[in-house]
Each structure stands twice: as C-alpha cells, then as structure tokens.
Amino acid sequence: MSVGELGPKEVVTASPDDELESITERLESENVGALVVTEDEEPVGIVTDRDAALVIHERDDVASVSVDEIMTEDPATIHEDEDPIAISRAINEHHVRRFPIVDDDGTLTGIATLDDLIATIGEELDNVVDTIETQSPEYSP
After folding, report:
1. What is the pLDDT of residues 48-62, one digit of tens each?
2. Residues 6 or more apart from 76 whose CB is under 8 A from it?
C-alpha cells in the first residue's frame, strides 16, 4: 500500500486570493479541517480551521482576509508512491498533521493525515491478530 492509496482523492482546495469568509464556509460544508491552496494544480499552501480561528483575534474585518495572508506557505508534501510510514516520519520532521500528496510533477493527487496513519496502523494490527489466531488457535485475547 502506498500513501497515494490513503485518504480522500478529492481534496478540498482554495485559491490564494479566496477570502476567509468563503474558506470557512467551505471548511464547514465539506466537513474538513484544512484546505490545500493550489496554483496550477500544485500545492502552494495550506489553511487549517485553526488558522481561520486565530485570525479572528488579529483583524477587525476577518471576512475579507485573503487566504494568502493566513496560509502556511510551501507545505510539506509526501509523494504518492511513499510507504504510509512516511506520514509518521513527516509528522516528526515537520510537526504538522496534514500533508498534500503529490505525483512526480508536483501535482496534487490527495491528502494524507495523522488520522490516515492511525487507521493504517489499526488495519495492520488486525492483520497481525489474524495471523496470531491462525497460527495459535488456542490463543484468545
């Protein structure tokens, strides 16, 4: 299994010139915690629900704040062919929970999150349990 097989294929994206009001509406309507900011189908930033919440304390008119003012620029990405454990290494290295997935051309193809890593580990542990139960029929957790 590769990182490209994890998470949603349809990534919710935004443009750098989108305004915060439309972004927060999309976060809510799409039920996601982050939008990947793209230009020419390549990730150039990421905006999280936390980013949107924090700007409230900095501005009087938050609705007109543009995405490029609050996004994290040049987000850490993971190549679609990487092993899922690459998410763990990326979390440790970059201290973030979400990573745009890219192909060889740098085009956005998905998004991988801490939740995807946890789900993958859970699936792998289920496989280990199945093996133990098959090899040791008398074993009962």
Report:
1. 999 888 888 777 777
2. 90, 93, 94, 96, 99
Task: Give domain 3-113's CATH number out of 3.40.50.1110, 3.10.580.10, 3.30.2140.20, 3.90.76.10.
Answer: 3.10.580.10
What are the angstrom distances between the C-alpha of 92 and each of 4, 14, 24? 20, 26, 28
Q: Which residues of 2-130 form beta strands (DSSP E)?
A: 13-14, 34-39, 42-48, 72-73, 78-79, 98-102, 108-113
> What type of residue sits at position 84?
P
CA 40, 64, 71, 10 dihedral sign is negative
Share of the chain above pLDDT 70, in %: 89
State the CB neighbour count (10 A cutoff) for residue 2: 14
> What does the domain layout of the chain look like in residue ranges?
3-113
Share of the chain above pLDDT 90, in %: 46
Residue 13 has pLDDT above 90, yes or no: yes
Q: How far apart are CA 20 and CA 70, in angstroms?
A: 9
Segment 40-49 mean pLDDT: 95
* pLDDT value of residue 2: 80
